[in-house]
Design goal:
single chain; alpha+beta; three-stranded antiparallel beta sheet; 15 strands; elongated
């Protein structure tokens, strides 16, 4: 690493008290926090001419000097997969993720991911989320379709992540659920945690321990009451999550007594068929849905460079549209 690639920070009152890795993130915004921590461990960062640890709290008058981490090859192999790009500029990408596509590699799912498709399609992606999540700022469940924003560089990633953390990003989802609520709109406020019996599932719980608060606002977009007293009917919901907990919308609608159609994990059944659309209790005829009827319809955030407020929408996918058409015909 040449001297020209080194950067120095003379710690003033504003930086005093910061951790070394936090200060380095400000000095090298184009690199991920994990890469900078590795640079510290490798001895590429000094404090007052000597070694330092990532967790050290800076004091006024300290001099922090560091070399930019060496670029590393992506660890997610690129794959030529279909990708619906809604928008692209030099800082970010917005995609309409297909149902069935996992966002990033995980245990048992090493290939076929959005991350792999992004690696194939784009030359540069942020690595702030880690080496297995190039460009990934936030995620959608495997079987949830819709709008998702991707960062091309680490400054954009940091700015977008900050908006998600401060909840200035506005999200709207569409969901087809079982049953018909009595209210046209309302808040759902609970605490949630991992289900101790099934680690892949979440549950509503009491406060305390590792429970986290979760808040969702809903509006009824369309009702499909039971016909001739058969079945419980269905509802098309507009969902506005205020927090972003794992499976939050799926858990909240189940808690409300209206599980999302074809969401087997949360009581919505394994599929949704023509017979069910007509109010029959047993599945039959054409199958419209084999995945939860949940779609990230709209995403609104500030551009990480210009600050311009951006709004992106993705139309309802064909499977949800077909299910709604069948419900309207039956009504």
């Amino acid at each position: 690493m040449s001297d020209a690639e080194r950067r120095t920070l003379s710690v003033g009152e504003a930086e005093a008290g910061e951790r070394v890795d936090v200060a380095l993130a400000g000095m090298f915004p184009e690199h991920s926090r994990s890469a900078l921590q590795k640079a510290v461990k490798a001895g590429a960062v000094t404090l007052n001419g000597g070694p330092v640890k990532s967790g050290y709290r800076l004091r006024e008058g300290d001099v922090l000097c560091g070399a930019a981490p060496e670029a590393t090859a992506p660890t997610v192999p690129p794959e030529d997969l279909p990708l619906d790009v809604l928008f692209e500029d030099e800082r970010l990408i917005v995609v309409n993720k297909a149902a069935g596509m996992i966002v990033h590699p995980g245990r048992g799912n090493p290939t076929g991911t959005l991350a792999a498709a992004l690696q194939h399609r784009f030359d540069t992606l942020s690595d702030a989320g880690g080496e297995h999540r190039p460009g990934i700022v936030h995620r959608l469940d495997r079987d949830t379709s819709g709008v998702l924003v991707v960062a091309k560089d680490n400054p954009a990633h940091a700015a977008l992540s900050d908006q998600f953390a401060k909840r200035t990003v506005k999200k709207e989802y569409a969901a087809i659920a079982r049953g018909v609520p009595g209210f046209d709109s309302d808040w759902i406020e609970t605490h949630v945690r991992t289900d101790p019996r099934v680690r892949e599932r979440m549950q509503v719980c009491d406060p305390g321990g590792n429970a986290r608060s979760a808040r969702t606002f809903y509006e009824v977009a369309e009702r499909f009451p039971p016909k001739d007293g058969r079945g419980t009917g269905y509802t098309l919901f507009r969902l506005f999550p205020h927090t972003g907990r794992t499976h939050q919308l799926r858990v909240h609608l189940r808690h409300l007594g209206h599980p999302i159609v074809a969401d087997a994990m949360y009581g919505g059944g394994k599929s949704f068929t023509e017979a069910e659309a007509r109010g029959e209790t047993k599945p039959g005829g054409r199958t419209f849905l084999r995945r939860q009827a949940l779609h990230a319809r709209r995403l609104e955030f500030d551009h990480p460079a210009s600050g311009e407020r951006l709004v992106f929408e993705a139309p309802l996918p064909a499977d949800m549209t077909a299910a709604l058409d069948a419900l309207r015909d039956a009504r």
